[in-house]
Amino acid sequence: MDPNLLAFLALLPILSVAILLVGLRIPASRAMPVCYVVCLLLAFFIWKLPVAQITAASVKGLGITTELLFIIFGAILLLNTLRYSGALESIRNTFSGISPDRRVQVIIVAWLFGSFIEGAAGFGTPAAVAVPLLVGLGFPPLAAVVAGMIIQCTPVSFGAVGTPILVGVAQGLASEGQSLAELAAAQGFDTERGLLQSIAIRVAVLHAACGTFVPLLLVGMLTRYFGERRKWTEGLKLWRFALFGSLAMTIPYLLVCIFLGPEFPSLLGGVIGLVVVIPAARRGWFLPDDRPWEFPAEDAWEQDWSGAGTVTHTASRKISLPLAWTPYLLVAALLVITRQSSLPGIDFSPIDAVKAWKVGAGSLFGTDIAYMTSPLYIPGTVFVLVSLITLVLHRIPPGDYALAWRDSLRTVVLASVALVFTVPMVQVFINSASGLAEYPKMPIALAMGASNLAGDAWPIMSPIIGGLGASVAGSNTISNMMFSLFQFEVGDQINVDPLWIVALQAVGGAAGNTICVHNVVTASAVVGIAGREGVVIRKTAFVFAYYALLAGGLGFVIVRILG
Length: 563
What we know:
Blueprint: H1 3-23, H2 28-46, H3 51-85, H4 87-98, H5 102-120, H6 125-136, H7 141-150, H8 159-173, H9 180-186, H10 192-211, H11 214-226, H12 232-236, H13 239-260, H14 265-283, H15 321-337, H16 350-355, E1 359-361, E2 371-373, H17 379-393, H18 398-430, H19 442-454, H20 458-473, H21 476-493, H22 498-511, H23 517-526, H24 533-562
Antiparallel strand pairs: 1-2
Helix pairs in contact: 1-2, 1-19, 1-24, 2-18, 3-6, 3-17, 3-18, 3-23, 4-15, 5-6, 5-8, 5-11, 5-13, 5-14, 6-7, 6-23, 7-23, 7-24, 8-10, 8-21, 10-13, 10-22, 10-24, 11-13, 13-14, 15-17, 18-23, 19-20, 19-21, 20-21, 20-22, 20-24, 21-22, 22-24
């Protein structure tokens, strides 16, 4: 089959998602079953995959769906626990004390705290932590989800203590004919770590450049879509503080990557940013002289802005500030600790301990597709554990705590239908090799067609392919595993530094999280607006386009003009 036609066919599952969710605004619960069927038909009739392989990929998708639903449940349970205990009211007062300006609050919570959580846990966890926190502070749920998705770009490449680079790129560059160590030696590096560090620094440079303007876009879109006067200018008035908040994170982020490696840029960048920005906000530094910006009154919100299960901040009793913040501090601490391979002065590996208990199968239906998970490693476990601790710390009446569980289970049901079809579709899409037609798997077929069309301009296209991979797969790590070797080989073919092309892939894969379907489904379900996924993606697509095109343009200049 003609490679360009094959690439178009491989694009159809993604195209169907865009048309149904974004174009026609059909809720994901109705759109994703159709997209799943499109992918199944392509896999069976065009790629000629065995039924066993399609079934195995779908079952693996259902396993991953269960993990996502557990994360959603845990995040909602913790939020509802804090709501019934009265802690949310105290947390809300904390941010009002820092600044009553919603533009300032969104930079602190979404950009800085979200970056820290992404660095600690990755895998969409900021959507399960920062988004409901914003709603608890009084943000419209739709605004909170859009904000939470917008920041899913700069921190993502170094999320989960560097997993997208140390696992995604590392496994992606290895091949049957050449190990990563051999590839590193061929590129002039003494160790695999040296090769990955070189790529990571390139990634950090690109992210630092592109991420500088993300907080400004964030506040601009907040005032444009959720303000009473619907003006970009109300957000852009905060340009000095937005750039300050950005650089307070991206400068440490870049330096940490250069001197410490890919494990901690997002985590330490977020922490340092919080330490720098919060005192500045309290003192009013870099803030405009106009009155603090606020959302319209809640009774004036548009119907799309809120939905079933919206969290209120009405408290039944007072909780002291330290006690109110203790659950979130515990979440952050446990996520960081359980992701470490060792602890100072202790002969103990937390990550090995939480990953010791595994559930799954090594070979599903006789195929090479495996599904294995570590229940204690899933962030949902941390959320549920902290919720139980909070029950005791905040002395919540058993009846109120039972209501928190009931409300949380109801909300999870809203997300289940969409995810039950979304994630299996993704797994069929990325496990579509080894069919009787002997075509490359769908993501590679798509990338090959794009490469044929782009030619020497491939550096501009490279982040877009990485982003599309992440938007479908739901993971920068998976996108890097799928495309890193392909991107490296294309860089060689067009006679440019292939490490820069791999870096562009990683940056694009990070940006793709802003339009990732199942991340949007997850974040929307957490705050009770399931069914508005297309509305969210229509807004965040602009940020993805900005990020991928700017990264691609910078990459083109670096490898073609400066290189």
